[in-house]
Amino acid sequence: MEKIIENKNDIQSNFLSTAKADISPSKWAMFKKSFRKNWDLYLLVSPVIAYFIIFHYVPMYGIQIAFKDFIATKGIWGSEWVGFKHFQRFFDSYYFWRLIKNTLGIGVYTLAVSFPVPIILALMLNEVKNVKFKKFVQTVIYAPHFLSTVVVVGMLVLFLKSDGLINQLITLVGGTPIEFMTEPAWFKSLYVFSDVWQTMGWSSIIYLAALTAVDHSQHEAAMIDGASRLQRIWHINIPAIMPTIVILFILNAGSVMSVGFEKVFLMQNTLNMSTSDVISTFVYRAGIQEAQYSFSAAVGLFNSVINFIMLVMVNFIAKKINNTSLW
Amino acid sequence: MQNSASDKLFTLINTIFLLVITLMVIYPLYFIVSASFSNPTYILTGEMWLWPKGFNLDSYAKVFENKDIVNGFLNTLKYTTIGTLINLIMTIMAAYPLSRKDFYGRNVIMAIFVFTMFFGGGLIPTYLLIKDLGMIDTFWVMVIPNAVAVWNIIIMRTFFQTTIPLELQESAQIDGCGNIRILLNIVLPLSMPVIAVMILFYAVGHWNSYFQALIYLSDKGKFPLQLILREILIQGEMDELMKGTSESFLKQKLSIEGLKYTVIIVANLPMLLLYPFLQRYFVKGFMIGSIKG
Questions:
Q1: Is ipTM strictly over 0.90?
Q2: Which residues have a Cβ under 8 Å from the Cβ of A26 and sit 6 or more positions away?
Q3: Nearest CA in chain A to B203
Q4: CATH number for the B55-292 domain, one of 3.30.70.3270, 1.10.3720.10, 3.30.2090.10, 3.40.50.10400?
Q5: In 10 A of CB B165, how many CB atoms?
Q6: CA atoms of B95 and B160, how far apart (whole Å)
Q7: Consecutive H or E run containing B251
Q8: Tens digit of pLDDT for each residue in A110-136?
Q9: Which residues of B touch A40 (CB under 8 A)?
């Protein structure tokens, strides 16, 4: 895992250095030489480059409509510049704080619950000596990873609806049924815990891999000193996977504002909107459904800029930690 | 060992915890399977909670009679096969040149790709582009805008770099073998494990995705299975919540109740059959990506 980060930094610094350097004659000569020898490789990669330019960089060019009043007949370029009008409208709107609160709330809640569970799970699985039992548990807990979001939310609805299994159980013990799916207070918890259910097994893989690197002689030495299992987990295993934990934590923390659209959208309905509306679903409604292109592009841009800044910040922190305390 | 008593206690508690977690994951899945074979009345009254009750295959028959589901299934099958094929070809086309040390400019190209992982135009500009390209409501919108994933290019490139011996390629070159032939005759035959991983990554992605279709498709005849599932499982249920239940509605509800569980099974059937491979190769691919990457 550390290597991913290194690699990313590597790629980024590569990007920066190549972007800065002007193409000097010698570089041009090197390219010409390489092209003459490997022209077929350039040919091979060119459709992929074309794909990235068309489907990823052209939309970046289209971002400018966030600062314009986009009119389809005039096109992106021909539409009038309006500066920060759409941003202003968004910041002043009634929805602004609600969206920020919900987006951040779901992100932080997910981080707080979805993040530690796989670590604990991996530590526990690592203690299992019986290979068959371990395999069985892994096979089961990895499975939900392969279910689609639609199926997971569909299952949530089936189990939690007013005459679903959970409410049948509540009625059985004498309680009153709860309308989980439409009750705003339940939305975030349902979102987060169904996420835990779906991802905990899969996310534990990376920690399990890190745990296999623990030196066995350390455990033997600790055993001779009379350390208990818990003590050994606490003093040997956890420190061993700490770098992985820190890196993944930082990466996850960097994406708290980028709550995905897919699941929130499926769990959303008119009754739980007050807690379920996040920036991405708002952009979808305003943009795709109501065709307020410029306004929703501005909202989307606001979100991606925040995400990008957070990511850069997090990367910076990771680098700092990388250099000072961890490695 | 001194701590054998506490050791045993630890093992016991650990095992119990893991069993509880396993049960929590497996029970909902098992319940769906069981419910799909049961009489829907028993599901709604709560009498069916472990074994199928009033065993029947009616709801399976209903799934196959339902034109939307069958059509959605076929559509998804098309999107998945064609889409995965395009993904695989594009990934190889990008990953192989980028894996070659003598390919000048590979860092720039990689940077162009990687930058899109961190920043993008966002939903609306992308939507407008697709609209301008006239791809709305076409087959191609389901397979072209997501033709390749950067992360998978990185995995594949890493695999090429670390597992295919450079000497092998160099000696082929000396023998007068062109780059394309090296790729087709030497590199790819040695890369079957990573190709399998890629196929599974992409195929599962296509099979499970609904976002692309939600945004770009309005013709119901082109809907993938996931959108049909959404209508049946989520929207149907929400409507019910909003409108309340009337007498005639109840009958209709009963007939569709069994269908919901069954359609989940049918939608995940390919996944269920492939699961042993999925698990093995996914973990493998995940590892190539994270450890060696």
A1: no
A2: none
A3: A146
A4: 1.10.3720.10
A5: 10
A6: 8
A7: helix B247-287
A8: 999 999 999 999 999 999 989 999 999
A9: 178-180
